[in-house]
Design goal:
Length: 287
Amino acid sequence: MEQAQVPGCYRHPGVETGVRCTRCERPICTDCMVDASVGFQCPECVRGGSGTGHSRTANQPRTIAGGRITAGDPHLVTTILIGMNLLVFLLGMLNPRLIDEMKLIGLAFDPDLGRVVGVVDGEWYRLVTSMFLHERIGHIAGNMLLLWLLGGALEAELGRLRYLTLYLVSGLAGSAFTYLLAPENQGSLGASGAIYGLLGATVVLVRRLNRDMRPVMALVVVNLVITFGWQNIAWQAHIGGLIAGLIISYAMVNGPRERRALVQWAACGLMLGLSLLTVVLRTVTLS
């Protein structure tokens, strides 16, 4: 049996190595490794990602998606998102009328508010506010646990801006899909669309890093069983968010290095545009 040849460092061809740059995937030896949030990067990618060759920024690697690694709490955005969800939950507990004003609904007469409500009636804000709304402790506890487990790692891997964009666009896609397929008078609320977007992104990222897929796929299966096996769950939000998360994250971590930012934001823009188009077409149909 022929023995596999170990590649040599691209900068020091005589030095064998099993490590590759996480950005360009060229083999690098210990003298060329620059520690990054995910594995190691080569000196050229570090300089290129920093935007200049100045010594002040030469050792500031970017994330696998090209995001800037900032100082401070690596889970800052995740913590803020959890805090916002908890705050809105508390306000809803103190004032149940807030839930009626903010939940996603197509068009219906609300006896508690004494008027017609819904996106069709011009209340488009419900597509976003419903993403931060929960009624039951078990509901918000499950969503926030997943947000912390999935979001913290994704924020560190993608960078704050890309991570926040992934979360919000996935959540909006989940709301749009629910608005399209759910009965017009059916209320919906929860961060599940955004959370499932993070779940899809985790699948893509684990695959990209060639890590063991079994734990994350088991998590996906369990959540899909809950989605379709549990009563009173807006499965449309879960599926819409999951699809958006898969598409956006694939563009973020697999795009070509030369036009990576363009591909990433084009994918985000595409999902945002499709979500808005879905909302417009559904509104026209129900009007």
